[in-house]
Write a structure and sequence with these properties.
Protein name: Ammonium transporter
Number of strands: 2
Largest sheet: 2 strands, antiparallel
CATH class of the largest domain: Mainly Alpha
CATH architecture of the largest domain: Orthogonal Bundle
Number of domains: 2
Order of helices and strands: HHHEEHHHHHHHHHHH
Main location: membrane
Number of helices: 14
Distance between the termini: 51 Å
CATH topology of the largest domain: Ammonium transporter fold
Subcellular location: Membrane
Structural class: mainly alpha
GO molecular function, one term: ammonium channel activity
Strand order of the largest sheet: 1-2
GO cellular component, one term: plasma membrane
């Protein structure tokens, strides 16, 4: 049981971490540290129970699916499909990220200046690490080294490859260029989409699901400019959109109950209902928490700190230190130190002299 607890804990951890990407570069560390455990307690754990613990979004006879299409011996005749967290993790985090982005507001210069990834090689390394680790989430959710785990492994691989290609095709047609960052984003979109469906689809169905996910997410990331919300790392465009498609797509492509395999419309209806219920629950709970923290602690850092660099103000450090021969931070790439950073550095130097 402890091994299962630890495994499930990783899902809770990554779900909260995903949300932070929507509001990166502009929120107080202290407010985030209060938000994270409250949100996990009031949003993640209840939804995880609703879906996987026999709750109203699961497959019990008393669940929504059981009420819609009947039940037998306490189990819904048409149970929702969420093998490894399409609703619990990705729709949940994506909706929370959207709400937070709206409550917190835009970064300084959003929509006026380019805000590109600062290090493309690190983006690619991160995407590779995610892809590798995702096998643990998806195949590991079978909790046994059996044929289903093998199917999940293959489905996760082919869906992700297809999604990467789908994203690159959209980029090439729309922008004239296919990019490395686009490939990495397509990888994540494919991983997200296949997460709920990986145990129920064939490899061919997984390729279709992944290709559509990559194309949809590539189009969806531009919505933040059209509708005016600042989603720093495209949590909404990738996790919410691909999570919704993967959850609904399972109702279309599941080999036993999917609409395209002769299973009727029931599975698709159940998938849509569960996905929308997750959106509503996550959105409402997140909104209440976010507004309460905005009224008490406040979310935003000062504008000058945001421009000069949040890491220096919040943590007295930066990702890259360019030092002169004297050992002091400098060089043309060094950010201008904030008042608190200078005070921290001067105090550190004074302590060194005293010692």
């Amino acid at each position: 049981e402890l091994a299962f607890v630890g495994f499930q804990l990783t899902f809770a951890v990554i779900t909260v971490a995903l949300i932070s990407g929507a509001v990166a570069d502009r929120v107080k560390f202290s407010t985030w540290m209060v938000f994270a455990p409250i949100w996990a307690t009031l949003a993640y754990f209840p939804i995880a129970h609703m879906v996987w613990g026999g709750g109203i979004l699961g497959g019990s006879g008393s669940s929504i699916s059981g009420l819609l299409f009947g039940s037998t011996d306490g189990a819904a005749d048409v149970a929702p499909i969420d093998f490894a967290g399409g609703t619990v993790v990705h729709i949940n985090a994506g909706m929370a990220g959207l709400v937070l982005a709206l409550v917190v507001g835009k970064r300084v210069g959003f929509g006026k200046v380019l805000m590109r990834p600062h290090n493309v090689p690190l983006v690619m390394i991160g995407a590779g690490l995610l892809w590798f680790g995702w096998f643990g989430f998806n195949a590991g959710s079978e909790l046994a080294p059996d044929e289903t785990a093998a199917l999940v492994w293959v489905n996760t691989t082919v869906a992700t490859c297809a999604a990467m290609l789908g994203w690159l095709v959209v980029e090439k047609v729309r922008d004239g260029k296919a990019t490395s960052v686009g490939a990495a984003s397509g990888v994540v979109a494919g991983l997200v989409a296949i997460t709920p469906a990986c145990g129920s689809l064939s490899p061919i169905g997984s390729i279709i699901l992944g290709a559509v996910a990559g194309g949809l997410s590539a189009l969806a990331v531009g919505l933040k400019y059209k509708f005016g919300y600042d989603d720093s790392l495209d949590v909404v465009g990738v996790h919410l959109v691909a999570g919704l498609w993967g959850t609904v797509g399972a109702g279309l492509l599941a080999t036993e109950t999917g609409l395209f395999y002769g299973g009727g419309i029931q599975q698709t209806v159940v998938q849509v209902v569960v996905a929308l219920a997750t959106v509503v629950i996550s959105g409402v709970v997140t909104l209440v928490i976010a507004l309460a923290l905005k009224a008490t602690m406040g979310w935003r850092i000062d504008e000058d700190v945001e421009v000069s660099g949040i890491d220096q103000e919040e943590h007295a450090e930066s990702a890259y230190e360019f030092a002169t021969r004297g050992g002091r931070m400098g060089g043309s790439f060094a950010p201008a130190p904030t008042a608190s950073a200078r005070e921290h550095e001067e105090t550190h130097d004074l302590e060194g002299v005293q010692r």
